[in-house]
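[job 4471] stage=fold_predict status=RUNNING
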Amino acid sequence: MSTVIPAAAQLVLPAPAKLNLMLHILGRRADGYHQLQTVFQFLDHGDELGFALREDSEIRLNIEVAGVPHDANLIVRAARRLQQESGTTLGADIWLDKRLPMGGGIGGGSSDAATTLLGLNHLWQLGWDEDRLAALGLTLGADVPVFVRGRAAFAEGVGEQLQPVELAEPWFLVAIPQVSISTAEVFADPELTRDTPAITVRSLPEGGGRNDCQPVVEKRYPEVCNALKTLNKFVAAKMTGTGACVFGSFPNQADADKVSRQLPATLPNFIARGCNRSPLHRKLETATRK
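[job 4471] inference complete, writing structure tokens
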């Protein structure tokens, strides 16, 4: 659903994808959520959002997202929550160029929400710091804080306890099986591993590690299983988050391109560079200096 963001947008910002380089499930908490450990790294590929100031306090997302009512969209919810908590009387027109698949495990909705919080904090001149924005982001979703903070991280808890890490920044080939995964179904599956021993950030294996959700998803969704088999012919492949996207890493873009050209047309894919600093934060720093 690619959309051209109009010239009326006063601020245009990326909403980058992320990969989970590993995902361990340590146990289930009393509140039903799962205790996990994961490593997040950003990609220099993602959605793009445009923002323009409104004086009438209205929040208007100027695009329809299939299957998502306007008021339920995480972008609109993030904008209204920030508006409410800050007490501002300003509003915004928002445009979305949607490039990331929904239900792909690469953070599309959470990244859009974080870009909205950071973008409107800048546009409305609220002066909120990162901690305050991340705390608000957590009320919208467990993955929102990592996008708000914008640094590759080792995460614990439900994914909100973040410790910045410096990782290699390889090129990734990300394949997109044509299926949307229900995260709730994956975490409810009785066969999900829930007793992986905790590790420390110092004992992280190079390149991440395994994904405890992957065996459950492979069993439930043959499209993901087949994508992993296909990619594994060329590179060690694994799934990100609860899927559906699967990925492999390469030392350079040319090697990733070579494999991409050999994948079947039924398996869409993209190539992106891993980033320890979010492209969103790099763009915002430039906008702030203007």
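[job 4471] summary: Strands lie at 11-28, 34-54, 59-61, 91-97, 153-156, 161-164, 171-175, 238-239, 246-250, 269-275.
[job 4471] exit 0
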